[in-house]
Amino acid sequence: MANPGDIAACWDIKLADGPHKVLLEHGTTSGKRVIFVDGVEVLRRNWLFRLVGSESFKIGKRAAEIEIISGNLTSFEYVLKIDGKTLKKFIESQVKNTRAWLPNVSGAAHRVVLDIETMDVYVDGEKSDTFGEFTESGVETHFTMSGFSVHISSLSSGNKRKGLLYHLHVDGTKLEPVNDLQ
């Protein structure tokens, strides 16, 4: 686990497969770099002569990179990139290309995420087996959650700029997406 006194940067990120915490230890005299993802050490570099540079690693299945930039004589700036995008740009893209719901099924809270580019569905961080069905009003993506058969409907909004509308249907109840991925 990371030494709290050595942590130079910390990021909390919500991805389709669930929330993640990234910690960076940076020895500003030794150049040491240690990266932790969800409390697990994923990269360690001891005694580097260059204090700046970048380190690549994975967050789940996503490619990530931390860029270390010299600020002034005594400070550094740390930039996290995911899939080649700065964290801010990645989050903007994720908000545009995913929808999330937080349903309560049989007394248990769940997190459902739909990737609208691939139509992959994640339930509590695990990719679900799905099947699609074309209907008169659009497409339904069916899957199971806690033993219940549920589906996500994709319907036209009637407005080109707005695009498709997505709703999660659980036990006869239609749920609107929440802004959970920022």
Describe the structure.
The protein has 182 residues and is mainly beta. The protein folds into 2 domains: 4-83, Lipocalin; 97-175, Lipocalin (Beta Barrel). Helices cover 6% and strands 58% of the residues. The strands form 5 sheets. Strands 15-16-17-18-19 form a 5-stranded antiparallel sheet, with no helix packed on it. A 4-stranded antiparallel sheet has the order 1-2-3-4, with no helix packed on it. The chain has a 4-stranded antiparallel sheet with strand order 5-6-7-8. Strand 12 (112-115) and strand 13 (120-123) form a beta hairpin. The longest helix has 11 residues, at 87-97. The chain starts with 6 loop residues before the first strand and ends in a 7-residue tail after the last strand. The model has no long low-confidence stretch (mean pLDDT 89).
* SSE pattern: EEEEEEEEHEEEEEEEEEEE
How many E-type strands? 19
Low-confidence stretches: none
- Quaternary structure: single chain
Strand content: over 45%
Mean pLDDT: 89
CATH architecture of the largest domain: Beta Barrel
